[in-house]
Amino acid sequence: MKEIKDLVVPDNLSYTDAHEWMDKEAVPSRMGITDYAQDQLGDVVFVELPEPGTRLEKGEVCATVESVKAVSEIYMPVSGTVSAVNTELEDRPELVNSSPYGDGWILEITADDPAALLSLMDHGAYLDMLKGL
C-alpha cells in the first residue's frame, strides 16, 4: 500500500468521499477511481460498465470494479446520464491500476445540473480526508 505522500492526486480534478474523481471542466465530465482506491483494491481483473444512455441519480451504483482482493461498487458523483464508457477496460481492466486518471477512466457523465459538480471536494479537501483515514 502506498503512503499518502506517494499517492497521485491531480489538482485539476474533483473528488468524492467514496474515492471517485471527476473532471468537472470537461463536458461531458469524465470520471474514474482515484489512485488511493486502485491501490486499496489491488490488481483489477474486471470492470462492469453501464450502458451509455443510462440515467442515474447521485449515489447510485454506476459500475463495478473487481480485483484479486474484492469487488467494489462505483457510485455516481452527481445525477446525470452516462454519455460514454471506456470500452478499453473490457479487454484491459488493469488500466484502472496503471493509469487511474488517464487511460483507466471509467465513464463520462452529462450532469443534470452542472452546478452539482461544485459540491465535490477539491484537491486539498480530498487530501485532508485521506490524511484522516
Automatic annotation (TrEMBL):
Q: Which GO terms describe its biological process?
A: glycine decarboxylation via glycine cleavage system; protein lipoylation
Q: Which cofactor does it need?
A: (R)-lipoate
A GO-annotated cellular component: glycine cleavage complex
Transmembrane domains' residue ranges? none
The record places domain Lipoyl-binding at: 28-110
- Enumerate the Pfam families for this protein: GCV_H
Instruction: Identify residues that carry N6-lipoyllysine.
Output: K69
The record's remark on the cofactor is: Binds 1 lipoyl cofactor covalently.
Q: Does the keyword ATP-binding apply?
A: no
Question: Matching SUPFAM superfamilies, A to Z?
Answer: Single hybrid motif
Thylakoid found in the keyword field: no
**Coiled-coil region(s):** none
Keyword annotations: Lipoyl
Q: What the protein does?
A: The glycine cleavage system catalyzes the degradation of glycine. The H protein shuttles the methylamine group of glycine from the P protein to the T protein.
Q: Assembly and partners?
A: The glycine cleavage system is composed of four proteins: P, T, L and H.
Sequence similarity = Belongs to the GcvH family.
Protein name per Swiss-Prot or TrEMBL: Glycine cleavage system H protein
Taxonomy-wise, where does this protein's organism fall, top ranks first?
Bacteria, Pseudomonadati, Thermodesulfobacteriota, Desulfobacteria, Desulfobacterales
